[in-house]
Amino acid sequence: MSQTDMNIFETLESEVRSYCRSFPTVFTKAKGYKMWDEDGKEYIDFFSGAGALNYGHNDPKLKAKLIEYIQNDGITHSLDKATTAKGAFIKSFNDVILKPRKLDYKIMFPGPTGTNTVESALKLARKVTGRTDVISFTNGFHGMTIGSLSVTGNASKRKGAGIPLQNTVTMPYDNFVNEDSNTLQYLERFLEDNGSGVDIPAAMIVETVQGEGGINVARFEWLRKLESICKRWGILLIIDDVQAGVGRTGTFFSFEEAGITPDIVCLSKSLSGYGVPFAITLFRPDLDVWSPGEHNGTFRGNNHAFVTATAALDYWKDDSFEKEIKKKSKMTLDFLKEIADKYPELKGEVRGRGLMVGIACGEEELASKVAAEAFTRGLIMETSGPKDEVFKLFPPVNIDEEGLKKGFEIIEESVKSLVK
Ligand code: PMP
């Protein structure tokens, strides 16, 4: 593409875009953990479509199933009609994911993306309880439509709505990650304080690891306490696993190791495994109060996504995949700790769980500089946090050790070039 053609992005595309500015090239091809631009330059992908490509780009098994389905003129669009692809996905999801984890949920197809599953969860919680308010947490991210934005704890994102967003209470997460959990004590007092006529909320919505908010990891005890508060007050607990789910933290659901059972779970991003938009909402069977048509949409449940998602579930048939992720997660955390120690100029704080990890830099701009420098050296990496102070390592979870190490080298070279 010539420079003039490149200008198309500058002159005709709306300023809403931002990734083009962070990664200034035109990509043409991708496989596994690698991407190539139109000049043939190779990049290692530690971004994974913001968590939509946990199995990497163009996974050969998923691709083969999709090609076979298309070649056999499989149904592409079916709205709510039953199709074999949809049936196979529901059965596999139940057999491979829910049953072995002793989870009993109904599956709903809320629309194509993460924000759709959050919208459906909020609607369902309000419909079931007949209550309005939803409690969410500072720096949580739940989507860009009005409902999901109203529970997103980030002022600059909320501004995009153009109006004040109502009926949500955002609680500080200060102690989300630390020992003294004042937030939850405050929450309990707030709920107990009948004197001030506080309305009991319909739901609480939380990420177990805040992906956009800075890789803030909720302690397992914190999550268990949150669950017990929800139970005590009849508040529905919604876990937004859109980014942390589908293996990103080392288990299929990010909440498994905490030993909690949410009432509602939101999944999307890597669920199709192939970058095809797909989302599901899981909820306790007794919460199924929907009447037909109350939450519909033209693109609920895409058949191509059913096909690739079903193929991707094969990875979860035994625990070898989880073990691999955990091994690579340890390698990655060890590497980050080493970097933080070796380069004190970073004033780095290592954060994360599974392959959802990063370093928060003491000087905020440094994280963006590391990501920009890494990009010139052939590594794609995002920043996160309210001030973009965290450089975030999000490789495909099935990356091999060689790929990980290549990425680590580029990160170290980038840090070194900036701080020395
Ligand atoms: N929830 C979480 C935790 C997310 O990270 C995101 C997207 N980054 C969303 C919801 C919204 O998903 P989508 O962009 O697919 O609408």
From TrEMBL:
Pathway: Amine and polyamine biosynthesis; ectoine biosynthesis; L-ectoine from L-aspartate 4-semialdehyde: step 1/3. InterPro entries: Aminotrans_3, Aminotrans_3_PPA_site, Dat, Ectoine_EctB, PyrdxlP-dep_Trfase, PyrdxlP-dep_Trfase_major, PyrdxlP-dep_Trfase_small. It comes from the Bacteria. GO terms for molecular function: diaminobutyrate-2-oxoglutarate transaminase activity; diaminobutyrate-pyruvate transaminase activity; pyridoxal phosphate binding. The keyword Ubl conjugation does not apply. Its EC number is 2.6.1.76. SUPFAM superfamilies: PLP-dependent transferases (SSF53383). The keyword Transferase applies. Its cofactor is pyridoxal 5'-phosphate. GO terms for biological process: ectoine biosynthetic process. Keywords: Aminotransferase, Pyridoxal phosphate, Transferase. Belongs to the class-III pyridoxal-phosphate-dependent aminotransferase family. This is Diaminobutyrate--2-oxoglutarate transaminase. It comes from Salirhabdus euzebyi.
